[in-house]
Every structure is written in C-alpha cells, then in structure tokens.
Amino acid sequence: MLTKEECRESLSDLYNVLCSRLNEEMQDYRQDFDRLGELIEEHFSNPPLSLNEVRQFWHEGIPVWDTELEEYVQINDVIGNEENGLVSVEQFFFESISVYQYHSKRFYRKEVQE
C-alpha cells in the first residue's frame, strides 16, 4: 500500500509533467488536482471519533474500530455526552453486546495502525 507521502509525490509529479506539456491549458485542471489531493488527505486521515460522530455511525449502521477491543464493532446505542457517555457495542466474532464508558481515543472510522 502506498504511503500518504508517496501518493502526494505521485500526484505532484503527474501535475508537473502535464504542466510542462500542456502549458496554460493545465490551469483548467488545477481544481481536479486539488480534489485528488483532498481525497488523499481524507483517505489517510483517521482522527478519533467524538461521541456525536459515534452516535452518527450508530444511526447509519456503520461499524467503527474499537482500539480497546482491537476490532470493528457495531454500535447499538449511545447515551450521555462527551464527559460521561456510554456506548453499547456488539462484537461481530463473539456476537455479544457490552456497554463501555466513552473516552476520546477509543473509536475510529477505520483500523488504527500503530
């Protein structure tokens, strides 16, 4: 898998090659290259989810990465706020539901690679 830096470098190289060949016409494509750069950022970005974001994933039925269980889980319920929130999660492998105290670095959109 390519790193964020490799993706950025490849995009930059492609842009520079096209600029040298197309000259002024390349400015018409600048917005497209900026969008590709944003997609690269989004792909590699994986900040921890706030409790409101965890709640949104629950409503949308999207699994989240749980750093303490080290697996994807399905959110079944969210109660409270950032300071004293509770999150009910279902583990897919064990098919069990447990309730855990929410903390700010527990849930992520995708697996956290350390």
Compact overview of the structure:
39% of the residues lie in helices and 23% in strands. With 114 residues, it is of the alpha+beta class.
Describe the fold and architecture.
- The protein has two domains: 4-44; 51-108.
- The chain has 114 residues and is an alpha+beta fold.
- Strand 1 (64-66) and strand 2 form a beta hairpin.
- A five-stranded antiparallel beta sheet has the order 4-3-2-1-5.
- It is elongated, with a radius of gyration of 20 Å.
- It has helices at 4-22, 30-44, 51-60, and strands at residues 64-66, 71-79, 86-91, 96-101, 107-108.
Helix/strand layout:
Blueprint: H1 4-22, H2 30-44, H3 51-60, E1 64-66, E2 71-79, E3 86-91, E4 96-101, E5 107-108
Antiparallel strand pairs: 1-2, 1-5, 2-3, 3-4
Helix pairs in contact: 1-2
Shape: elongated
The overall strand count is 5
The description of the largest β-sheet is: 5 strands, antiparallel
Which stretches are poorly predicted, pLDDT < 50 over at least 5 residues? none
How would you state the average pLDDT, rounded? 90
Beta-strand residue percentage: 15-25%
